[in-house]
Design a protein that fits this description.
Elements (H helix, E strand, L loop, with lengths): L2 H14 L4 H13 L1 E4 L7 H12 L4 H6 L11 E4 L4 H7 L7 E4 L10 H13 L4 E5 L2 H5 L3 H15 L3 E5 L8 H13 L4 E3 L11 H18 L4 E3 L7 H14 L12 E3 L2 H14 L12
Parallel strand pairs: 1-2, 1-8, 2-3, 3-4, 4-5, 5-6, 6-7
């Protein structure tokens, strides 16, 4: 991996497309549909999860939906992501919707618990209704180049997920080099990951465009070699509508239109939705609302 070349390419992406007016609104609505609306705080409660799920089912105010012409099919987010203990609350709150519950697992965010405990956590979340599992890898295996051990652990986690989708968090801020990021991406896909994900959101450095570009190139290479389509999820640090646009542009430029669908692209975020709603309100009214006007889910 050529780090300086990746950084140069990533720097050009925000300037390659000028998406304005109705087109920008359409892209932002698509971003909403690709959000994994997330709460991963130590003080999470059932009430907070229920509020999050209510926002997931109605991410935009009714008046904005009507002015966008979407009243017949209002947008919803891609998933709700919570800690395992909050899965039953999320499943109950989303019972009347088609939105899946995603759960972090395997000793999130550090992934330093024993493997049997990590596998048991996956099974517990799946048994209680999680349809997507976001696992974290044991970073030491990447740093020491122990690729077979990494493969074996992810494959065991894939088996523990059963029918649930497996998203593999690489925690790229801890992997030090883009070469490690590329190799870890490839191993995760070979071991059965349905998605590869940048970050837990808890590292010092989370999702960046150069890292995301590296992972997306790995996706493209893997697809060309195997014919399998693997999804991508940036997470951590995406807070503004502009961030969402930049990552959508990355997917469109590098992988094509197919990777703008929520079955192949997700954005892990909590506060991002509020800024997108604010931008869409400006689109339909011509006025910017204060950030406090929009619920932060």
């Amino acid at each position: 991996m050529n780090t300086s070349a990746a950084e140069r390419r990533a720097a050009t992406l925000p300037a390659r497309r000028s998406v304005k007016k109705d087109y920008q609104a359409a892209w932002l609505v698509r971003a909403i549909q690709c959000i994994d609306l997330t709460t991963l705080a130590g003080d999470d409660t059932a009430a907070r999860v229920h509020r999050l799920c209510a926002k997931a089912m109605r991410p935009l105010r009714d008046d904005i939906v009507e002015k966008l012409g979407l009243a017949a099919a209002p947008p919803q987010v891609g998933a709700v992501c919570v800690y395992p203990a909050m899965v039953p609350h999320a499943v109950k709150a989303l019972a009347r919707s088609t939105i899946p519950v995603a759960s972090v697992a395997t000793g999130f965010p550090a992934g330093l618990t024993p493997l049997p405990v990590r596998l048991a956590e996956i099974r517990w979340a799946v048994d209680h209704g999680a349809r997507e599992i976001d696992i974290v890898i044991f970073r030491e295996q990447v740093l020491k180049q122990e690729w077979q051990a990494l493969y074996d652990e992810i494959a065991a986690m894939r088996e523990a997920c059963g029918e649930a989708h497996l998203k593999t968090i690489l925690a790229t801020g801890d992997l030090k080099t883009l070469r490690n990021v590329y190799k870890a991406s490839m191993v995760a896909m070979q071991a059965g990951a349905d998605f590869i994900k940048t970050s837990t959101g808890k590292e010092d450095v989370n999702a960046t465009l150069p890292v995301s570009l590296t992972m997306v190139r790995a996706l493209r290479d893997y697809g060309e070699q195997t014919g399998h389509k693997i999804g991508f999820k940036p997470a951590g640090g995406l807070r503004t509508a502009k961030d969402a646009m930049n990552w959508l542009i990355l997917m469109k430029e590098e992988l094509g239109r197919r990777w703008l669908e929520p079955d192949l692209f997700r954005i892990g975020a909590s506060s991002l939705l509020a800024d997108i709603e604010r931008q869409l309100e400006h689109h339909v009214t011509g006025r910017y609302a204060a950030l406090s006007h929009h619920a932060l889910a």
